[in-house]
Amino acid sequence: MKYVIFRFIPYFLAAAIAVLAASPCPGQPLTALEIMQQADARDDGDNMTCDRKMVLIDKNEHKRTRIMKSFTKDKGVDTLKLMFFTDPADVRDTGFLTWDYREGARDDDQWLYLPELKKVKRIASSDKSGAFMGSDFSYADMTRRVVDEWHYTLLKTDVVRDHPCWLIQAVPVNETVQDRYGYKKSILFIRQDIFMMCRAVHWLDEANKIKYVDIPDIREVDGIWTALEILAKTTRNGKTLHRTVFQTENVRYGQPIDEKMFTTRQLEKGL
Length: 271
Fold this sequence. Notes:
The protein is mainly β. Helices cover 13% and strands 48% of the residues. The protein has a 13-stranded antiparallel β-sheet.
């Protein structure tokens, strides 16, 4: 997707170039902002198709499973995303479209198609902190964070699944950003080898609610480091309220996807 400058460079060389490019002087430690800029600029592929499964688990361990087909395409520095639910019957043909803009001055556009109403609903900025299709992910979580919308502090280093990580605190730059995400602050675990988030903790605006995110399965697919499993849970006062398991399969990059597919008309038309 964005910045495909490293795709054909051996990985260890790409990582070394990224560190040198971010550092003001060779050997000088990266700042929190420089780390996040490198994470934002990493190659995350383009023209991607995949199958996804989302498992919703309530506090009584009751599970609901939803199956999706997903498409992603870059348009300049921006990203277009389209997702259709294919199973079960009660959500089949529901569609979700995102125009993810790189610049924070322009709010991302998102639309949800509800087949039972035969209507496309635009997601307002004030609604983006709400739960996406009953999951622990918000509508804002379904887009890429704009680096300049957060203040960063490097807290320390740690190890997650044998990988050294930076722990970075992110605080919204203003109330508008905070309202959109519903987060007062976040702690992001960024892997030092691939500049990719592998874990996060978000403090929600709602009293005593915390959201935990873990990405236990990150693999190279077609030369792109890809999150194949994301786990999320929302807690209040230490008690789990809800969990979500988000799994991705059959990932393919470089697919022939027409930009005309990413429209509200396609949402109504379906797959």
